[in-house]
Amino acid sequence: MSVSDVPGITTPIAKTATSRLSRPVNRPAAWITVIAIAASLAALLPLGFVIFVALQNGWDTIVAMVVRPRVGELLVNTVLLVAFTVPLCIILGVALAWLTERTNLPGRRFWSLLCAAPLAVPAFVHSYAWVSLVPSIHGLFAGVLVSLIAYFPFLYLPAAAALRRLDPAMEDVAASLGETPRRIFMRVILPQLRLPIWGGALLVGLHLLAEYGLYAMIRFDTFTTAIFDQFQSTFNGPAANMLAGVLVLCCLLLLITEAGTRGRARYARLGAGSEALPRIHHLNLGFCIMALVLCALTAALALGVPFVTLGRWLIAGGSEVWNMAELVPALWQTLLYAVIGALITTAAAIPMAWLSVRRPGRFIRLLEGCNYVTSALPGIVVALALVTITVRIAHPLYQTVFTVLLAYLLMFLPRALIGLRASIAQAPAELEDVARSLGRTPSRAIWGITLRLAAPGAAAGAALVFLAITNELTATLLLAPNGTRTLATGFWARSSEIDYAGAAPYALIMVLLSLPLTWLLYRQSQRMAGR
Amino acid sequence: MSTLDIRNVHKSYGAVAAAIGIDLSVQAGSRTAIVGPSGCGKTTLLRLIAGFEVPDSGAITFNGRTLADETTLVPAHERVIGFLPQNGALFPHLTVAGNIGFGLAKDLSDRAQRIAALIDLVALEQSMLTRWPHELSGGQQQRVALARALAQQPKLMLLDEPFSALDTGLRAATRKAVADVLSKAGVTTILVTHDQEEALSFADQVAVMRDGRLIQVGDPVELYLRPRDEATAIFLGEAIILPALVAAGYADCALGRVIVDDQAISGKRQIVLRPEQLHVTPVRPFELCEDDCHGHVTEIDFVGYACHLGIKLAGDKSQVNGTPPLLMVRHPNDQVPPIGSMVRIDVTKPAHVLDAD
Fold it and tell me: Which residues contact A511 (CB under 8 A, 6 or more apart)?
């Protein structure tokens, strides 16, 4: 008698296979998965557009349009811009983070706030300030300078947060092993900053590739400005689409490089954080003065220049520049786009966020990845894709509010996703179970409990999307219905006509709208570090 | 009358089988504990009963109503089965009153009175109703969670290790309080735990689970004294497992000849003794008798309420196993025999013979 003959020892696997077909399922809210898949498929539109254009034109056309001196020139410009700006941002961001977090620099709380503040000024307003201050400024040097000033907070904020979170015990151990402070910084602190530095560097790199307004204003040609010019002269021509394809390749290259060099190690001790306060280094007088000069110089360039310029134009323009008949509709239009866009984007992110927390798996990770890749693509590519698709397939949607909002959704979904995901993860799954055992349907349990608890995270995510839409220029210029004017496009129209005084009120309102949210971002990065 | 019936239930996650051929009956108004090491599938079984998971095959019926089988599935929110998770899982955005009233209809006329009665039932102050969950201690949170689960007057209550997060002292007290409340309300209860002591003290019926299977089901005393196999014996408490030659109601083992609880068994088997069945008496060499089992004290381990004596037997009387084993025996704190002294070991009550492999 073999084992399989014994009654009771039957293989359960065979049983489940036969009975599964007729079995009722308890899959909570299948519509959640459907929406998540739909959002992710929509996110693939821009990438699909680039591939479609490439296939449609064929290899010979691609070679003819891509392999030419103009593209080479743009490529050199873009590579040089990234190669200079990113390392400079890293050095400046980490140096300021270390000074404000780990030394006894006088007024370090104040300086730390000033280091985050440039984020409230849209990049193209930075460049407007410089152009009207030094009209002759242009080219690579100007591009690197203004980019550095506009984007270094992307490195400062994560580096400062990581420095605050580092376990001081590690530095103590290194010191007890006979290391000098300088060598401790190089061998213990800096390696642990690798993840935030890499993350920040990627963000800066993607912004450099995507930004239009900043470089157009100082007449520095990158792929994005070239695509825009091409689009304006030939509308939906293959030349612009080809350039967009090259730009997408550049972005993907950045993403792959970052992913490949980031490493897998988890350096910083994560979690609740330690009770011990980080060590504070005492600067000697000479070093202290140098540090103060660096901070003051940064603040002067990053905040002083925009505010002084704005103030000068506003005073020079007097009350005439406050053309309420234009400003009020622009403000209203911007608020409308930003509020509706933030609400739609956050709502669309909910299913994805819930699935990625509650049903993690390879498929869900893939869906989530789709959203991140698209948000890494420049707004101009998303806009071109939507222009092409609406013109060819759904013409009634061309230049409608719907298309603009769709572009915002595709570009900014991950901003809502990150905050939502973190806060859903903090709402324990048992709460949903308990609610169901007390008579709530699965969808009511998710809505009434998990989303109720995730509301702060959702609000923070929505605020980030709001901020992004308020300052969005490129996609809005390409996609907005005729006659629609937001603050950004209004500002752009004025400053393109060299009406710098007329542009100033638009810039001021954008900065004022951004300030509270920048403050929120600053507070959040402090709280994440456990303060 | 049996109220909950689980028949041949299977559940697997991909290649991992979490429940294999589970059969279990729970009597109305009784308390059952499902006990097993972590990862044995006991929480899955509880979630299958609650309706959070769907069985791959098999049937679950409650009071004659089919909850899940090949064709039917009653969703969790229609089962009216109370659920008390590990940490209480109070809704942090609701007050105590809001939590307790969560399962009560909003337009109920006597809602406030019911909530007040429920908080009385779990022996908490009325003034607590306006407090927030984070203002309560762990034990208080568990009581509120219990009141919340009782609000919809379930006939069946599922407890998922609800006491494991509490301090040792609070734990026993909360366990007792919960058991009392549930008995008074006449609610059939299933407790899942990895703590064998908790299972034995809480339940009328204990089910031991391992690797997705129910190994043995029975009343606590039965299970403790007559475990089916070695792993169950060790899991339910300290055990001395000895190889023995069994015949005619006796076993010959390292401790000499001991009575066993089953006269019908014979052959080479393993027997199990609980430490409290062994009694140690100091003896002087000339008092020794040939038939007695004796040995030397080799170590004394003081643990507070008692001490543990390590005893090296003088010789193996059974001839089953060549080397004399080292025994750990519990001994009262007074009159502890010193290290190196000779002791006699007596066995009270019959030993239990484990099933043959």
Answer: A120, A121, A122, A125, A306, A310
